Amino acid sequence: MKFYSACLLIIIASLPLLTIDVAAQDKLLGKIDFPNSGAEEAQDNFIEGVKFLHNFEYADAARAFKRARQIDPDFVMAHYGEAKSHNHPIWFQQDRQAAMEVLNNLGETVESRQSRAVTQREKDLLMSLEILYGNTPESEDVSKEERDDLYMAYMAELHEKYPGDHEITAFYGLSILGSAHEGRDFSIYMRAAAELFDVWNENPEHPGAAHYLIHSFDDPVHAPLGLPMAKAYSKIAPAAAHAQHMTSHIFLALGMWDGVIDANIVARDVQTTRQKELNEEPTVCGHYTWWLQYGYLQAGEVENATKVLKTCTERIKAEPSSSEKWHFAIMRGHQIVDTENWKRALEWTSDFEAGTRGAVNYFFTTALANIKTGNIQAAQESLDQLMKTPVSVERDIQVDQIQSLLMIEEGNTREAVELLNQAVVSESELPLDFGPPVIIKPSYELLGDVMMEMGNYEEALDAYQNQLERTPDRMRSLVGKEQALAMISKQ
Questions:
Q1: In which ranges do the TPR repeats occur (predicted)?
Q2: pLDDT at res. 21
Q3: Pairwise CA distance, residues 428 & 307, whole Å
Q4: Rg (CA), the chain
Q5: In total, how many domains does the chain have?
Q6: Residue 431 pLDDT more than 70?
Q7: Region 422-428: what's the mean pLDDT?
Q8: How far is CA 353 from the centre of its chain?
Q9: Which of 165, 188, 217 is the last residue of a domain?
Q10: Could you tell me if residue 478 is inside a domain?
Q11: pLDDT tens digits for 164-203?
Q12: 448 has pLDDT over 60
């Protein structure tokens, strides 16, 4: 498998970047064809809305569909698109109430809404939302996860009914990805890719095909298959910040740090430009800055990573949102853990309550930094705070990590290693992250560090190698592996 992947990587890396005439693009968001019965003068806004949907720029999609509806109040597919913008399959988010407000504008019942649709295809697409939002007998009063599965099954039927329809195929592929409720499942992701390739092969400028295929392949095993899409997507949709960022999903999975950095600089700048147009505050503690900072750290560009975190830290001193505080906590964690500059934990601080988002990573990082600087009492206090945060597998792993290190400090080495190995097993059973590690100090890497301190260099080497299979070219694991090999050579 490793030989196959390496050969495939060489072949794909040699492919030329897809060249697209940007001036010829409509709205710089890609190229699609979506037949509909709406008024001609509303088409530009409608097509723009669908493209924004494919690029996961949901707020802009809703705005475009609203403009189309204002031009043509009877535009059924504009209602469909706006209602669809309130469902985010990959993120497992859905605002049913907002979606129903849009659909109820079209009609108060399923039957009345169906009567407004002009063609059978439009009726069918509209019915897919009735299932998605729980308005049919089989989807009523069931969980969102069950509705997702029912919606996917219905989209499969539409795909069979309209086999050459790129939009139906793309949304069917996305519905498959949205059925992975338990986390990354290779079989689910490969099923989605198998459907999406048809669209990609026939229209390599389709934003949804490129985007959803990247999601299908953004893990270390399959990432080489996603390189053609990663190289193309930023040029397919240069006006979509998310499109610029998505290319880095493949680059990160392959340890291509320059690509991660470049992609997220562009994503951040495109997002900032759009936010200024809308008179919104630029995001400095968010998804793109998190990935950018992590890329800098892995590339050894600590000064640049520090600048990104400092900007975020200044924002946190104001009135941050829950999302901003979460991103600050994880960015702070990566900066401290990946540079091993433990004293900076006293500099980058914020008020966190145990029940707030980001509290797990905040208190974990503080506890680890206190252990590394010898302040065991403060570490125990941080552990106490960590244990008050909401229970999750990820939290329990990090609790075990800190407890094992404290046990080592107390001289209970055997019990500590057993507990740390328990954390390793628990983390290895989790689906692979499709981004920077959300467990700040990966368990295999921590085990490698502990084994190095104990002089168990062969075991340390195994641990670092296992971590590098999950997070290719992660800097701290690479350093650990080199140190382990150096010590083994001296024996």
A1: 441-474
A2: 32
A3: 33
A4: 24
A5: 2
A6: yes
A7: 97
A8: 25
A9: 217
A10: no
A11: 999 999 999 999 999 999 988 999 999 999 999 999 999 9
A12: yes
454 backbone dihedrals φ, ψ, rounded to 5°? -90, -5
Amino acid letter for position 359: A
Q: How far apart are CA 152 and CA 161, in angstroms?
A: 14
- CATH at residue 173: 1.25.40
Q: What is the largest CA-CA distance in the chain?
A: 80
Tokens linked to 94: 């859905």
pTM, full prediction: 0.92
- Residue 92: inside a domain: yes
Q: Please answer whether residues 60 and 275 qualify as being in contact, where contact means their C-beta atoms are separated by less than 8 angstroms.
A: no
Final residue in a domain of this structure, among 191, 217, 243: 217
Q: Domain for residue 122, yes or no?
A: yes
* Opening angle at CA 285, ends 284 and 288, nearest 5: 80
One domain, residues 37 and 169: yes
Pair (212, 347) in one structural domain: no
Sequence-separated contacts (24+) of 396-402 with Cβ below 8 Å: 396/426, 397/423, 397/426, 397/427, 397/439, 397/443, 398/360, 398/361, 398/364, 398/439, 398/440, 398/441, 400/426, 401/364, 401/368, 401/441, 401/443, 401/446, 402/364, 402/367, 402/368, 402/371
Q: What's the pLDDT score for residue 184?
A: 86
Domain annotation covers residue 323: no
The structure tokens listed for 177 are 């990805």
For residue 358, give its domain range. 341-441
Q: Can you give the pLDDT at residue 56?
A: 98
Alpha-carbon gap, residue 75 to 118, rounded angstroms:
10
Query: Please, are residues 32 and 51 in contact by the beta-carbon 8 Å criterion?
Result: yes
| Digit-coded pLDDT (tens) for 67-77 | 999 999 999 99
Contact indicator for 82, 49 with CB cutoff of 8 Å: yes
pLDDT range class, residue 374, cuts 50, 70, 90 = very high
